[in-house]
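Now for a specimen:

…
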Amino acid sequence: MQVEQTAVPGVLVLTPTRFGDARGFFSESWNRQRMAEHGIDLEFVQDNHSLSAVVGTVRGLHFQAPPHAQDKLVRCGQGALFDVAVDIRKGSPTYGHWVGVELSAENGKQLLVPKGFLHGFITTQPNTEICYKCTDYYAPDCDGAVRWDSCGIDWGGEGTPILSDKDAIAPALADFNSPFVWEGAP
């Protein structure tokens, strides 16, 4: 497993080794013991899987507030997407900064999005599947969103994105009172 730091501390790109032959490939997308060797000690309790049929679908920017905040490990099972994490920890030197990574079925990359970060993506191929692990269970009363176009993210899409009603009316980052507080590195 290759582990890369990004420009925003705590957000990591994980690229599993793939073993391939004429049939395709095999890879280990998560191994708790190997991750612990890289200083990543997370216990995932829920896996989520979504399909976005149309290119230009934006999902996000989402978070789950304490006491049910979630770390997420995101990967693409089919198609391709541009995946984004935005720091929303009050007092963080990187508050409002974002990291974006292309995740695709072909490149096998994964993005580790820590608690205290918004998460979202835009699809760049039709019928894109996103799969992600979470360190806490979904709690509707802790669910939140920030407007997708209020953080200065270069989404790279063309035309008007396809949004859910929830995402279309989410508050802008400038109007958002984050429930997260930076507690030092990362």
Notes: The radius of gyration is 16 Å. Helices lie at 32-37, 165-168. The chain has a mean pLDDT of 94.
